[in-house]
């Protein structure tokens, strides 16, 4: 029923709880790569803990804070030590990706950081060009990262709740099954 990633995610959540979510999202935010797909871990965590707010809030907070901490570490390393994470074999970020992120940052500013963190596949890309832009402070970057990560985690939370409740489609969610009967 579950794939190997989902089974591993459930085992991690069962053993370590929200700490596992924090660690995976922090590593993903730090551009280290995916030890385990963060989306799978998050949704599996929501399914495992249930849909009550008391159970889901720590998972949500761990994901958002983990991603923000990971990206802030990259931001600080680039800013303070002039590190180049793209030169590391662990980081799957090319020069053309960084150039594209830099152009978006030049055009849109910090909202581009938040927007990129809300979209799968572009999460974390803006840490390096933002750190290279001397006018952006670490707290402002962290705030933009936090906002985008919260939107991303909110969307994953909705998916996790839908899976927990057994909602198979958007039509089931809004209750439009009666249309097919007509």
Main traits of this protein?
10 helices; 72% helix; mainly alpha; 182 residues
Brief sketch in words of this structure:
The protein is an all-alpha fold. The chain has helices at residues 4-16, 18-29, 38-49, 53-81, 95-108, 110-117, 127-132, 138-165, 170-174, 178-181.
Write the layout of secondary structure elements.
Layout: H1 4-16, H2 18-29, H3 38-49, H4 53-81, H5 95-108, H6 110-117, H7 127-132, H8 138-165, H9 170-174, H10 178-181
Total strand segments:
0
Distance between the termini: 34 Å
> What fraction of residues sit in β-strands?
under 5%
If helices are DSSP runs of H or I spanning 4 or more residues, what is the number of helices? Answer: 10
Cα Rg? 18 Å
The residue fraction in helices comes out at over 70%
Secondary-structure element string: HHHHHHHHHH
**Poorly predicted regions:** 178-182
Largest sheet: none
Mean pLDDT: 78
What does this structure look like?
The protein is an all-alpha fold and 182 residues long. Helices cover 72% and strands 0% of the residues. The chain has helices spanning 4-16, 18-29, 38-49, 53-81, 95-108, 110-117, 127-132, 138-165, 170-174, 178-181. It is elongated. The model is unreliable at 178-182 (pLDDT under 50).
């Amino acid at each position: 029923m579950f794939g190997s990633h989902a089974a591993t995610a459930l085992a991690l959540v069962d053993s370590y709880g929200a700490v596992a979510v924090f660690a995976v999202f922090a590593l993903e935010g730090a551009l280290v790569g995916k030890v385990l797909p963060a989306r799978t871990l998050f949704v599996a965590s929501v399914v495992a803990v249930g849909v009550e707010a008391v159970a889901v809030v720590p998972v949500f907070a761990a994901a958002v804070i983990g991603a923000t901490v990971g990206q802030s570490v990259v931001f600080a390393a680039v800013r303070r030590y002039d590190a180049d994470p793209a030169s590391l074999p662990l980081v799957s970020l090319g020069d053309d990706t960084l150039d594209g992120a830099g152009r978006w940052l030049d055009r849109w500013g910090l909202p581009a950081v938040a927007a990129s963190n809300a979209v799968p596949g572009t999460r974390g890309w803006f840490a390096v060009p933002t750190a290279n832009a001397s006018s952006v402070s670490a707290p402002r970057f962290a705030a933009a990262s936090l906002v985008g990560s919260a939107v991303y985690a909110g969307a994953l939370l909705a998916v996790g709740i839908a899976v927990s409740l057994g909602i198979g489609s958007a039509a089931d969610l809004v209750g439009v099954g009666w249309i097919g009967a007509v």
